[in-house]
Design brief:
heterodimer; A: alpha/beta; Rossmann fold; 2 domains; seven-stranded mixed beta sheet; 15 helices; 21% strand; B: mainly alpha; ABC transporter involved in vitamin B12 uptake, BtuC; 14 helices; 1% strand
């Protein structure tokens, strides 16, 4: 009898180590409807590209399969986003979350769902400076830099272009406010002048009153810290119609292929910033994505990296549980270790399984600083010939 | 020169947008007021009726564009509008038949009508989102501008530009034509007169042999036409998004009540009062003053009374004041 018990215990332990190959689910919470809906399909697909790559390699935790479960953050409605996240965590039982996208809903999900359930979140695009200091129990990371950094970069660009004064409008939420404050602080510290900083609401039909107020304040350019499918577009259209401004400064929420198409040639000469690097990783990722039939846009690369980091941390922690993997995200993202580019996730998993160390570079030259956010490389965008073109990297 | 600059500035940012918006509100408020005058309730489904008419017009516009029909510099939607009006008339008459007629026979309270109309609003709401979706649709074509700000500057040599969009011009002209036709109809034709009689005193009108069903039907036809035209003009000038038609319902009601609900002249006046006060109160007058004032008086601040966030608050403040001081509205409509 004793023998039998031991034998069955041994058998059970063998079985459990073999059963380490599990079905891992990663929640992908993005605003598939709402103000950045033109960007999110590519973001979601990019994250799923990383999952597919890992699943195919068969090297994660003894050949585990990773599947994505999508949820809609709506980008603006915190209650809806929280409900979507709650569903992913409690009923779909996701191991970790790749998302959310917009800063307001990301904060809401972090506080209401992620912290309550101990689930790791890696956001590809939430950029509000307020998230750097939010209580997160070590669960929140982002592959996008904080807007505190974007404000610096934009101020530098404005200075280089010889802009002395600028009017600014921002979308009335966490993202817009945080970014606007950062731009104003940095621009004024280098001697520029913000003539007005006015909020606008998304989803309105008519922005002529807002444009009127901005035009009266005046300025060389208009900084539009909004969303490209929403109020930001309305403000630009209104400004062009009334002849109030000719040149627009477009932070990351305004960068996407749909904006130059919607506005037309009048947008030529406007410029902006979006997180990005000219590293080899960015090239590799672009090629991989286009081979997979994904039309990459802003934040696609960040999404791939966010998903990759989650899975690499799982391997490093030898566990797919958020509670274990949260301590490993910074390790796999930063030096020391072997540098890992997109498409090399299989290799990375192998190194980690062998007890080695990696430094995930990925598609966006990931380097996590502070409380777990990207250090921030930006692509300076110039709208030329009805297209977003890259002027240089900063 | 400075004086001309100041005038141009006000014209560009305040007068033209205000006038256009006022026309759109006035047409909307006329529809609300007509229903109130004849059927004696506040039709909350009016915003969605506008959206429905616009939606059908958009489909007709796309169809025409596919066939290669165009009006040259004018938007194709203008010739597509009759289709929109026709479908909206059908929708309104069916709704009346299915929902409102029962309550009319029961002689229900106005508040019951009102709540029924909220139900109808949600129904339309869902129908529109089901057919065309919740997204922005842009269906403007033809010339975008009558004159652009830059052309105006080179033409006049002024520092300020004056932009005048084709859609703004069309809105103003169409509104003038429609309003003139409506007043002619109400004051000169037999049917119009019978409608006014019915509105003034229902029992007396019935005694004098006016057919109530006919009056109600004509009221719905007029309302559907007004709603479609108002909605299409708004959509052409701004952009079509179902949600904004729900939002515009509030200023429309404010306009109808401020002007005096039940009074067509009041609806038009109310539309302009609401539109201009929304734009004028939230406008920043710094540049305007700087053109007129001597150099030493140049203002530092923006000279803005209220931030543009409070745009809707302005129309509601006016509404509250009017209801307190003169509940019948400017043109002595009925009190609610």
């Amino acid at each position: 009898m004793k023998k039998l018990l031991i034998a069955s215990a041994v058998a059970a332990s063998i079985a459990s180590s073999a059963a380490a190959a599990e079905d891992i689910k990663i929640g992908v919470i993005l605003g598939f409807t709402g103000p950045i809906e033109s960007l999110t399909p590519a973001m979601g697909a990019s994250a799923e590209l990383a999952m597919e790559e890992v699943t195919k390699s068969g090297k994660l935790l003894g050949g585990s399969k990773v599947t994505s479960v999508r949820g809609d953050s709506t980008c603006t409605d915190s209650a809806a986003a929280t409900a979507a996240a709650e569903r992913l965590v409690t009923s779909d039982k996701v191991n970790a979350i790749m998302g959310a996208d917009c800063s307001g809903v990301t904060g809401a999900i972090l506080q209401n769902v992620a912290r309550a359930n101990g689930i790791v979140m890696v956001s590809p695009s939430a950029t509000s400076p307020a998230l750097s200091t939010a209580e997160d129990d070590g669960l929140f990371f982002r592959t996008a830099p904080s807007d505190a950094r974007q404000g610096q970069v934009l101020a530098e660009i404005l200075k280089d272009k010889g802009v002395k004064s600028a009017a600014m409008t921002f979308t009335n939420n966490d993202y817009g406010k945080g970014l606007a404050e950062s731009i104003q602080k940095n621009f004024e510290s280098i001697g520029g002048k913000i003539t007005i900083s006015a909020a606008h609401e998304d989803g309105k039909g008519d922005y002529s009153a807002e444009v009127g107020a901005l035009a009266q304040a005046g300025g060389d350019v208009l900084i539009v810290a909004g969303y490209l499918d929403q109020g930001g577009k309305g403000i630009i259209q209104g400004s062009l119609d009334s002849g109030a401004f000719d040149t627009f400064v477009l932070p990351d929420g305004m960068i996407g292929d749909s904006l130059p198409v919607a506005i037309g040639s009048a947008l030529d000469g406007s410029y902006g910033t979006v997180p990005g690097t000219d590293s080899k990783g960015a090239e590799d990722f672009k090629k991989m994505a286009s081979d997979a039939g994904i039309k990459t846009d802003a934040f696609s690369a960040e999404s791939y990296d966010a998903a990759a980091l989650i899975m690499l941390a799982m391997q490093a922690a030898k566990s797919s549980k958020s509670g274990d993997l949260k301590a490993k995200i910074m390790d796999v993202a930063n030096a020391p270790g072997e540098k890992i580019l997109p498409g090399e996730l299989g290799k990375a998993l192998e190194i980690l399984a062998g007890g080695g160390e990696i430094d995930y570079v990925g598609a966006t030259a990931v380097e996590l600083i502070g409380a777990g956010e990207s250090a921030g490389n930006y692509r300076e965008i110039l709208v030329k010939g009805g297209k977003n073109t890259t002027a240089k990297y900063r | 020169m400075n004086f001309l600059n100041a005038i141009t500035l006000i014209g560009n940012y305040l007068f033209i947008p205000g006038l256009t918006y006022g026309c759109q509100l006035a047409l909307g408020a006329l529809g609300v007021t007509l229903i109130y005058a004849i059927l004696r309730y506040s039709n909350f489904a009016h915003g969605e009726t506008m959206a429905f008419g616009t939606m059908v017009t958009i489909f007709a516009t796309w169809g025409l564009q596919k066939l290669g029909v165009s009006l040259g510099p004018l938007p194709t939607a203008l010739i597509a509008m009759p289709v929109g009006i026709l479908m909206t008339v059908v929708l309104c008459l069916v709704s009346d038949r299915v929902v409102y007629r029962y309550h009319r026979k029961q002689r229900s309270d106005p508040v019951i009508f009102l709540i029924a109309s909220i139900g109808v609003m949600f129904l339309y709401n869902g129908l529109i989102r089901f057919v065309i979706g919740p997204d922005d649709q842009i269906f403007t074509d033809g010339e975008r501008f009558i004159i652009t700000a830059r052309e105006f500057k080179t033409l006049t040599g002024l520092k300020e530009g004056l932009a005048f969009k084709t859609t703004q011009g069309i809105t103003i002209v169409v509104t003038a034509v429609i309003v003139a036709a409506l007043f002619w109809f109400l004051n000169k034709t037999r049917t119009g007169k019978s409608m006014r009689a019915y509105s003034d005193n229902e029992d007396l009108a019935l005694l004098s042999g006016i057919n109530p069903d006919r009056v109600v039907m004509v009221a719905w036809i007029l309302t559907a036409a007004l709603a479609t035209i108002a909605g299409t003009l708004y959509g052409l000038d701004k952009s079509f998004k179902p949600f904004t038609y729900l939002q515009i319902l509030l200023p429309i009601f404010a306009a109808a009540i401020v002007g005096g609900i039940g009074s067509p002249v009041g609806a038009i006046a109310g539309g302009f009062v609401i539109a201009f006060s929304e734009v004028a109160v939230t406008f920043a007058y710094r540049k305007f003053v700087s053109y007129l004032a001597p150099e030493s008086w140049q203002p530092d601040g923006l000279l803005q009374l209220l931030s543009t966030d409070y745009k809707f608050a302005v129309s509601f403040s006016i509404l509250v004041i009017v209801l307190l001081v003169r509940p019948t509205g400017i043109f002595r409509g009925r009190s609610i």
